[in-house]
Design goal:
alpha+beta, eight-stranded antiparallel sheet, seven-stranded antiparallel sheet, 52% helix, 14% strand, globular, GTPase activation, Rab-GAP-TBC_dom, calcium ion binding, cytoplasm, repeat
């Protein structure tokens, strides 16, 4: 089989291998002792050594090595136990690669080319195995059946995959099966007659990490708020951990941040995923690949990945075909070499003229020619599914060209009608603030190098981006080219070209409007580069105001955030105003997503990633400073302002150059380089304040070669101590710092960063959730213990999540009920059905068949704003102050009474009476509460006595009112007022007779002389029966009820949903 290339330092160590076949680049070797009939001592010794080793350490008898002439290092690229298989691999290498390798001039390119080919073959084999397994889903169907039977979750809980592994309890491993689904991870083990099973919702996972212990060198630790669980002995640890991180990240973003819904949407569009988990696995893999591609090429977040095809692209500067992968999205083509960062190209589909197939030959198999508007063409070869790829690209290209032609025709009409305004806006908005400086020798040299680069690698958005351009960027982009290259590297130029007059329209719409964002903008305008001449006049301030206001109008979710003013100011110095706007759009929405919003989730995730990189790349610093959170806090401004707020201006602009070329990877690398340069001083610092001073002092003295005030441009001064001169302050060149960051930390890849972000986003979102809970519990203002209130919050939130997991319409209505921008106590809300579920779990006395009616009435009573939702504040208030758990008998009776009067009358309960029908309902509620009580018979007798007494009281009052109405004909002002209140509440659901099997007719409070009874009369009657007084005054243990509810909530709710789904 093919292997991921592994270095072999000694090709024939200890004479353990015999070469069977060889040529200039490959060796086919056999393990000495395997197949030898002569029985030589060396062969017998090697054979015996291989035999006694365990199965994991045994060496396969055949292997193929890649050797580069003149190098002492070889790479193992294939191994196997059968000579026939190895001969097939050998023949493929000779027929397909040997001739191509002979044309390479650089021998290092040979190794890179072959390794890329082998990795492509491995990827094809993996896809082939997955396709074969997908065609026979019986194994997965069996796993799915076991999953449903063992854990009792609804069928809408989609299983993704299963793994055989061990779950550790202390030092004891339990072998079993780990099930990963969309919303949960579950483990089942049955060993030596003992069954172990548990379910962990992804929403409860606070950390996922790989650890090493004394027992196992590689384990997955899953941490929740209650406990930790360790898993090991996976057949494929990397794959299992990757899917666990991805599923947890998707679930948390969906539940806590209203994001990450791509998987759910794909699942709902593809009902066949019920029996084929490989389809769902591919959806997850495609989503991870899409996130990587968007980050690699800094594409708009709405782009959908269409194809990913292995191929080779002709690179004129290298005079060879570079192996890599072609990624196509809705509006872009992107090519990246096997080694990330070595060579890449981004081609907007709007720049493409045609995509054509050329004649296939042995030297150029399956070629495709992509022609662009700049009269250039890109050649791709070795495309596996060339026909379908070309057809798909051609279809999207034609659709895009048709939309552009339609837009241009409409634009010509609009421009004709708005020509006077457009000429004024053009004059106003196309001013430029490029700093006027003298051309220096260094500046001219850099310009010449860039012009040479353009002639060799191309110019514009689709230029080849290689390691050479990285070196040029590290030197600093010339002032005259900075704006153009920022627009090119970020692809803001494509957005500008495809949205003509968009900015002008935004400015016209937004100027003159007043909002919180515009107030903050006005406050920060004069704080943006206040020392720069461009922003010491009205023209510069006005341009900055228009850019920031237009963006706030474009994206109201972000609006305006601090540090955007600094960034926009720098952009205006090197680009025109409209270009600066599109650069700001690119930074906020593509390159730094989730940075500029109220919660700053993206920046916090990157700070957490930065901490892990410090521990990994700077272990000595991490050892001396175990708590890295202060360094993370200090570095937050580095990421938010791209070092613009901490470095001298001219040095910071060089960092912005690197950022537009490499994205956030450049900020991570530079941050690590800064910490490494100050590691000794940081390790010896006494506190956080001293560490801040160390880093601030270092960054203040980082200078640029072109800066006239830089010490590098000044003549050398006398050394310290000579002729009374003070010691010379040490300075660091920004170019040296950037180069150092590339050399020491340049191996950091976008794929690694995205993987770390996926894992650390879990921790950040859960930290935000902890803050939300803490504030919600602290601001509930109810008479419950903090422990009970915390547990009730968890029950309330879990009920909300369960509806998201399995409820009908969970991606529409239910998601709208969680808004992170709302007050903490109002972020989570439940509807009527969810409240009924919580009511059954928490109410101290269930009412049998009457429970549903009482829960319905209680929900209506609590829903004061009539939006059909109850917030946590209202729910906690019902349990803490306005519920059966309160200590006062009067309050408990008052609550039951309020359930049988019109809404809004609770405040005047002493003046509000209920009719006879509602009193009967009140008695039903009391009767149903006594079922199952040890004193049931005595309570029934007591309530019968009270009922008779109240009926008599009501009858006496009814007769007195009837007789009084006959005597007086015009003395009913107060009764009329009461009647008006009653008239307005006739149609309320509380008074609907549907619950009694009626026709829905109102209860008829319209007659002022009908039979009624008051709260005071009912309370006085109840107090005459000591048995009832003892029942209502008996203290209730809310803690025990909450603990029981936490155990029962999940499976009772799941069972109810399964019954509901089964009846449809």
């Amino acid at each position: 089989m093919w292997l991921n290339p592994e270095e072999v330092l000694l090709k024939n160590a200890l004479k353990l291998w015999v070469t069977e076949k060889s040529n200039d680049f490959f060796l086919l070797q056999r393990r000495r002792g395997h197949g030898d009939s002569g029985g030589k001592f060396t062969g017998l010794l090697v054979g015996a050594l291989d035999t006694v080793l365990d199965s994991n350490a045994r060496v396969t008898p055949f292997r193929i090595l890649l050797q580069v002439p003149g190098s002492q290092v070889s790479w193992a690229i294939a191994c196997g136990a059968a000579v026939e298989e190895m001969n097939r691999h050998w023949d493929w290498l000779v027929q397909n690669l040997l001739h191509s390798l002979s044309v390479f001039e650089n021998k290092e390119d040979v190794a890179s080319f072959v390794k890329g080919k082998v990795k492509g073959l491995i990827a094809e084999e993996v896809r082939g195995r997955q396709a074969a397994q997908e065609e026979d889903p019986e194994k997965f169907r069996g796993s799915l059946l076991k999953f449903e039977l063992r854990f009792g979750l609804p069928s809408s809980e989609k299983l993704v995959t299963t793994y055989s592994c061990c779950c550790w309890k202390g030092r004891v491993p339990r072998q079993g099966w780990l099930y990963l689904s969309i919303n949960h991870m579950a483990f089942y083990s049955f060993l030596l007659g003992k069954e172990v099973k548990f379910v962990i919702p992804w929403a409860e996972v606070t950390r996922l990490e790989r650890i090493s212990t004394g027992l196992m060198t590689d384990m997955v630790r899953v941490t929740t708020r209650q406990r930790q669980r360790d898993f090991s002995m996976f057949l494929s640890m990397d794959e299992a951990f990757r899917f666990m991180c991805q599923l947890a990240d998707i679930a948390l973003r969906r539940l806590l941040d209203s994001g990450g819904l791509e998987t759910v949407h794909c699942r709902r569009r593809r009902p066949q995923l019920r029996i084929s988990y490989y389809s769902l696995l591919r959806v997850l893999e495609q989503q991870a690949l899409r996130a990587y591609v968007l980050a690699l090429f800094r594409l708009p977040r709405g782009e959908r990945l269409q194809e990913a095809a292995l191929c080779s692209m002709w690179t004129p500067h290298a005079r060879c075909h570079t192996p890599g992968t072609l990624y196509t999205t809705d509006r872009y083509l992107g090519f990246s070499s096997r080694d990330e960062g070595r060579c890449s190209v981004l081609i907007p589909l709007s720049e493409v003229i045609s995509v054509e197939k050329a004649e296939s030959t042995s030297v150029l198999p399956s070629p495709v020619i992509i022609s662009v508007r700049s009269k250039k063409a890109f050649q791709l070869i070795e495309l596996q599914d060339r026909d379908s790829l070309v057809d798909s690209l051609t279809t999207r290209l034609r659709s895009l060209q048709w939309r552009h032609s339609t837009f241009r025709s409409r634009k010509s009409l609009v421009c004709y009608s708005t020509a006077p305004y457009k000429s004024v806006s053009n004059h106003t908005h196309n001013t430029s603030f490029r700093q006027q400086i003298c051309e220096t020798t260094m500046e001219q040299m850099k310009e010449r190098l860039w012009e040479e680069h353009f002639s060799e690698y191309g110019r514009g958005i689709h230029m080849f981006r290689t390691e050479k351009i990285q070196k040029l960027v590290a030197m600093g982009i010339p002032e005259s080219l900075r704006g153009e290259l920022w627009m090119t590297f970020s692809d803001a130029s494509s957005e500008l070209a495809s949205h003509p007059d968009y900015y002008t329209g935004l400015v016209a719409e937004s100027m003159g409007q007043s909002s919180l964002a515009t107030e903050e903008i006005e406050r920060d305008l004069h704080r943006s580069l206040p020392d720069h001449p461009a922003f010491q006049n009205v023209t510069g301030i006005a341009a900055l105001r228009r850019v920031l206001t237009a963006y706030a109008h474009r994206n109201p979710k972000i609006g305006y955030c601090q540090s955007m003013n600094i960034l926009a100011s720098v952009l205006l110095l090197y680009t025109k105003e409209e270009e600066a706007f599109w650069l700001l759009v690119t930074v906020c929405e593509r390159m730094l997503p989730d940075y500029f919003n109220r919660r700053v989730i993206g920046a916090q995730v990157d700070q957490s990633v930065f901490e892990e990189l410090i521990r990994e790349r700077l272990p000595e610093l991490a050892e001396h400073i175990p708590d890295l959170s202060p360094l993370s806090t200090i570095s937050l401004s580095w990421f938010l302002t791209l070092f613009l707020s901490v470095l001298p201006f001219r040095s910071a602009v060089c960092v912005v150059d690197c950022f537009f070329f490499h994205g956030t990877k450049a900020i991570f690398q530079l941050g690590l380089a800064v910490l490494e340069a100050n590691a000794a001083a940081l390790c010896s610092s006494a506190d956080d304040g001293q560490a801040l001073m160390v880093l601030t002092g270092f960054l203040d003295q980082v200078t640029d070669n072109d800066d006239p005030s830089s010490p590098a441009s000044q003549p050398p001064s006398s050394p310290s101590g000579e002729e009374g001169n003070p010691p010379v302050e040490q300075h660091t060149l920004i170019t040296d710092l950037i180069t150092d960051s590339y050399e020491k930390f340049g191996d950091l890849t976008v794929k690694q960063i995205e993987s770390l972000r996926c894992r650390h986003r879990i921790q950040v979102l859960q930290a935000h959730e902890d803050t939300t809970k803490e504030n919600a519990v602290g601001h509930a203002y109810v008479s419950l213990s903090p422990e009970n209130l915390s547990d009730i919050y968890d029950l309330f939130k879990t009920e909300h999540f369960i509806n998201l997991y399995w409820g009908e319409g969970s991606t529409t209505v239910a998601l709208q009920t969680h808004d992170p921008s709302r007050p903490y106590v109002d972020q989570y809300r439940v509807d009527r059905a969810q409240f009924k579920s919580l009511y059954v779990l928490l109410v101290p006395w269930l009412c049998g068949l009457h429970t549903d009616t009482v829960a319905h009435r209680t929900f209506t009573l609590l829903d004061q704003d009539r939006d059909s939702f109850i917030t946590f504040r209202e729910f906690a208030g019902w349990l803490g102050m306005y519920t059966l758990y309160c200590k006062e008998l009067n309050e408990k009776i008052r609550l039951l009474y309020c359930l049988h009067i019109p809404p809004g009358y609770c405040d005047i309960i002493d003046f509000c009476c209920i009719p006879q029908r509602e009193f009967i309902q009140f008695c039903k509620t009391l009767y149903s509460m006594f079922h199952g009580n040890p004193d049931e018979n005595e309570l029934f007798q007591a309530i019968a006595t009270v009922t008779s007494l109240v009926l008599q009281i009501g009858e006496v009052g009814h007769r007195s009112r009837c007789s009084g109405s006959e005597v007086s004909s015009d003395g009913g002002t107060e009764d009329e007022v009461e009647e008006n209140h009653r008239e307005g509440s006739r149609d309320h659901p509380v008074f609907s007779t549907k619950e009694e099997g009626g026709t829905g007719k109102s209860l008829g409070l319209e007659n002022q002389s009908e039979w009624t009874v008051s709260y005071a009369q009912i309370l006085a009657s109840l107090l005459t029966e000591q048995q009832l007084v003892n029942f209502f005054e008996k203290p209730m243990d809310l803690s025990a009820k909450v603990a029981e509810a936490k155990l029962k909530q999940y499976h009772e709710r799941a069972g109810l949903l399964m019954l509901q789904q089964g009846t449809r």
